[in-house]
Design brief:
Blueprint lengths: L6 E6 L14 E3 L4 H6 L5 E6 L2 E10 L2 E4 H6 L18 E3 L5 E3 L10 H6 L2 E5 L2 E3 L21 E2 L8 H9 L5 E2 L12 H5 L5
Parallel strand pairs: 1-3, 9-11
Antiparallel strand pairs: 1-10, 2-8, 3-4, 4-9, 5-8, 6-7
Length: 200
């Protein structure tokens, strides 16, 4: 088994701006992918591949913080990611006094998805990320072995010892941060994207 940072790879079935959420200067994974959110540690990488084109990169993020969902809700840095902000939310699970988690009404997930979201326990947060969305580039030849298909995620399969270094070097061709818009949402510049939930 290869030591050092791990690379979790999965296919982003719907890229609506909420999971991952690359807005407000942070990339966060706070809903969906419960196994990844329970398992990932600071320093690991998350790689999301495009549905139907799994050799194209939706996003890559280094995990810089692992936070319990209740702490994510309470942290003032992430208030803009709550429902009612100027973009897709992902911060909509609040810790109650009895220790349970309550889903706050939002435009991304309904009650049927709450159990799966809460089972992930954590929100993963990154300021060291590249999000491409609808501008997703194909992986270079020396990283194409990281592709993944099907349900769930890959972790150790086909890993090489220098994958993290090669990935970082390749990503440095673009500015860090958001370099595209969500694949499955209205263009960011449209007023109705920001002011209504019709884009979902």
């Amino acid at each position: 088994m290869i030591g050092g940072p791990r690379i979790f790879r999965y296919v982003v079935r719907q890229d609506r701006g909420g999971s991952p959420n690359p807005f407000h200067g942070w990339c966060s994974l706070a809903v969906c992918k419960p196994q990844i959110r329970r398992s990932a540690r600071v320093g690991d990488w998350i790689v999301g591949l495009r549905s139907r084109h799994n050799d194209q990169l939706i996003y890559a993020m280094r995990v810089d913080e692992v936070m319990a969902l209740g702490d994510y809700w309470a942290d003032p840095r992430f208030v803009a990611k709550r429902p009612g902000g100027d973009g897709p939310p992902d911060n909509f699970y609040r810790a109650m006094a009895n220790g349970s988690m309550k889903q706050v009404a939002n435009t991304l997930h309904d009650d049927s998805e709450a159990a799966r979201d809460i089972a992930g326990l954590n929100a993963l947060v990154s300021w060291h990320f590249w999000y491409f969305g609808d501008q997703s580039p194909p992986l270079p030849t020396d990283l194409v072995h990281l592709t993944h298909s099907g349900q769930g995620h890959s972790l150790h399969r086909r890993r090489r010892a220098d994958d993290v270094a090669v990935l970082q070097h390749w990503l440095d061709h673009w500015p860090m941060g958001r370099n595209g818009n969500p694949v499955d949402a209205w263009p960011i510049g449209r007023q109705d994207y920001l002011r209504t939930s019709s884009w979902l």
